[in-house]
Design goal:
36% strand; 20% helix; six-stranded antiparallel β-barrel; single chain; alpha+beta; 259 residues; six-stranded antiparallel barrel; Thrombin, subunit H; 2 domains
């Protein structure tokens, strides 16, 4: 009976994933048609209080346009974000066009720096979201200048740990979305649940354009840590799929030693 229940649960997770992915693909095609400017997600966070101070906007200059996502300072010169934020269609953008604005307060950053290098997940390739793409949808922006703001550490969680944690409904997410681009938004009761494998997990957090790359945070042993990054979202269902820290924790640690 237990084995049958596990099979049923696996099938259900797969069906949910496919539904989210299919919906996200449709949303990506109609981004400009969605009237989300006046619909706010979450509450305004205080940009002067940590960990909000370590979260900021990742901006990419594309000709006459500025593309924005959310990023997290995870070391003095390292910013974690979603890989798809650093692509223009199928082309990786030039690092010289990327900047990080930390702790934006009504559009004014507490600190900022241009990028000198982009470290993209080796398993990521741009295109419609699939489970493999979501699992590799992470990148690290290496900054030209160190930022003197306390970084947020990264913590990998095994599936059983994530399941135990999900029962507490105590995850948080902070980001800069299209609905509120010049002030940070926060959801303090962000709900997460284990995905079909340890590479991804489900979330019900901030869901709008601009929140891609936003950190999903957890309080573990008295410390706030990053357990994943926002990858694919479904605004209508206020949910989506996140890339787990199990995918990038080791690389970030290695980069932090070398930078």
């Amino acid at each position: 009976m237990g084995r049958l229940m596990n099979v049923k649960r696996s099938v259900l997770c797969s069906l949910v994933a496919l539904a989210i992915i299919a919906s996200a693909g449709k949303l990506a095609q109609t981004e400009d048609a969605l009237p989300n400017f006046n619909q706010h997600y979450g509450e305004i966070a205080d940009p002067s209080i940590w960990p909000t101070t370590a979260v900021g906007a990742v901006t990419v200059a594309l000709f006459h346009l500025i593309h924005r996502c959310t990023g997290t300072l995870v070391a003095p010169k390292l910013v974690l974000t979603a890989a798809h934020c650093l692509f223009n269609d199928n082309l990786l953008v030039n690092s010289r066009n990327v900047s990080f604005l930390a702790g934006l307060n009504k559009g004014v950053p507490a600190a900022h720096s241009a990028a000198v290098r982009l470290a993209i997940s080796k398993g990521f390739d741009p295109g419609p979201p699939t489970l493999d793409r979501i699992a590799n949808d992470w990148a690290v922006v290496v900054l030209a200048d160190a930022i003197s703001i306390k970084p947020i550490p990264i913590k990998s969680m095994a599936p059983d740990q994530l399941r135990d944690f999900s029962n507490s409904f105590s995850a948080q997410q902070i980001g800069y979305g299209r609905d509120r681009p010049y002030l940070p938004s926060i959801i303090r009761d962000c709900r997460v649940s284990a995905g079909p494998d340890e590479r991804i997990f489900w979330y019900r957090c901030l869901t709008n354009f601009g929140y891609s790359g936003a950190p999903i945070l957890a309080e573990i042993d008295g410390s706030t840590v990053v357990i994943g990054v926002n990858s694919t979202r479904n605004p209508q269902q206020r949910g989506g799929v996140a890339c787990s820290a199990t995918q990038f924790a080791k690389t970030v640690a290695e980069l932090a030693k070398s930078e």
